[in-house]
Amino acid sequence: MFESKRGSVKSGITNFSICIVASLIYCLGVNFFILPGGLYSGGFTGIAQLLSLLAEGTRLEPYNIRGILYFILNIPLVIIGWRALGSKPMFKAGFTIILESALMSLLPIPKEPIITDALTNTIVGGFFEGIGSGLLYVGFGSSGGTDIIGIVMSLKYRSLSVGKVSLAVNIVVYAVCAIVFNPTVAVYSVIAAFCSSLIIDRIHLQNRAVTVDIFTNRDREIGDWIRDNLDRSATVFTGTGAYSGAERKLLISVMSEYEYHRLKHALPELDPTAFANVYPSTAVLGEFEKRLS
Length: 293
Known about the structure:
By secondary structure, the chain is α+β, with helices and mostly antiparallel strands.
């Protein structure tokens, strides 16, 4: 949801284009695979699905009101997010919420599943949702719901995160599915959510932290680039080469994998002789700002 304070690789127009494509893919997964298969999505999409059951037996039953319910559920969250996070991130979140609400309501829902095999339909639906959600994060967007709750709550309670809030909401949604329907519906819905999360993790590089060790003689230039382009910092150590005996600088910085890919393309121009060692950071504590997490 949040772009780097000092610039972004993609322009605003490109990011909005990615968000539009991502929303379409996500809603295709919901309307073409999840709903025809009798499954339930996680998060606020799943809550909207459950609430739509209240329309059964009323004049609203023939209509697809899930998109409208999804939009209504997100209105108070956007207001809360606007006050807590500012207008810039919430403008894009609001745009995405309106778009996804419209697509959920307008895209046709097949009466029968496109893929007859239940497990295959579940996996494909989860993949579509995962690709859509992952691309949305790449475009620095958010579909609201648990994203907004998680970010606002994490600002107040450091032990919380978007992932934990999303997990808590999903547990409630799938527990209701198991009680109201049957365990089979809940299990297949969980499988779809698991497939979705796998795809998101593969696409959403901003959510994975790495540590970059750079051996260089141009520590000032590289450090300035990291600060100005990634809005990150670095620590510089002075060492001596065991073979040459020459003084060498070691620059260490922790960043997201997405940010590392930007650095990787810039490093040859900053110092063609630099040597970098990159390894995953299994846990990052303290004042490390996670973005789009």
